[in-house]
Automatic annotation (TrEMBL):
It comes from Cognatiyoonia sediminum. Residues 59-129 form the Methyltransferase domain. Pfam families: Methyltransf_25. The keyword Transferase applies. Gene3D superfamilies: Vaccinia Virus protein VP39. Transmembrane segments: none annotated. SUPFAM superfamilies: S-adenosyl-L-methionine-dependent methyltransferases. CDD domains: AdoMet_MTases. One of its GO terms (molecular function) is methyltransferase activity. This is Methyltransferase domain-containing protein. Keywords: Methyltransferase, Transferase. One of its GO terms (biological process) is methylation.
Length: 207
């Protein structure tokens, strides 16, 4: 890949191989070149949403990347936190922060091979264009305890385009207390074409 990774390249991904290649290249510069430079708010919104719902550990951070969500949760004394992500390169950066117990390289749209079970599931920036659709919800429910709190950011356009509302409806025998609250993904530092992008904070409990 010749250009520096950015949102445009991330939203255009069409395979796991492309996801791995892009994030391998992006991992070292992601926190500063993307997170800080674009005023990326999702990790904070997800963490505060989870805490506000009374979420507690053990927590699984889905598409954990470099660990931005866990940095917030760890400051709030929530743990232990495990990370799952397709990109070993992103998880290498996350590991260096010392905020995770286990780091799992896996595709969350498939059954996740872990003996661990979770009281909380969080995710920022992973349910979005070119990444994970509603098919990612069932494998996560399978490794969550009854009563587990989910707090997931879902890109608003992606939510509409991929039929999340229908998927949530179809899961009504497995989940309860479904709530949606929109927030701005970026602040005013973001490039003009993404400055007003919205995500839904999708929260629910496993029945
Ligand atoms: C935009 S980053 C978000 C990282 C972190 N949660 C944050 O908010 O900074 C999206 C992450 O989702 C991961 N990802 C994409 N598709 C995935 C999949 N099918 N299974 C697991 N992780 C995936 C990518 O590797 C990447 O680390």
């Amino acid at each position: 890949m010749s250009d520096e990774p950015d949102l445009k390249s991330a939203y255009a991904l069409t395979s796991n191989a492309q996801v791995e290649a892009l994030y391998e290249e992006w991992a070292q510069s992601y926190d500063t070149g993307f997170g800080q430079a674009q005023g990326y708010q999702s990790p904070r919104e997800v963490a505060l949403g989870f805490i506000g719902l009374g979420g507690k550990g053990p927590v699984l951070d889905v598409g954990a990347g470099t660990g931005l969500v866990a940095e917030f949760l760890a400051r709030a004394q929530i743990g232990p936190i495990d990370a799952v992500d397709l990109s070993a390169g992103m998880l290498d950066v996350a590991r260096s922060k010392g905020v995770y117990r286990d780091l799992i390289v896996a595709d969350v749209t498939q059954p996740i091979d872990t003996p661990n079970r979770y009281q909380g599931v969080v995710s920022a920036g992973t349910f979005t264009h070119g990444h994970v659709g509603p098919e990612g919800l069932v494998p996560l429910l399978d490794i969550a305890e009854t009563g587990a709190v989910f707090a997931l950011s879902v890109n608003r356009q992606h939510y509409e385009n991929l039929g999340f509302a229908q998927a949530i409806d179809d899961l009504s025998d497995k989940i309860t207390d479904v709530k949606l609250r929109d927030f701005r993904i970026y602040d005013d530092r973001a490039d003009e074409d993404h400055r007003d992008d919205l995500a839904a904070l999708l929260s629910f409990r496993k029945r």
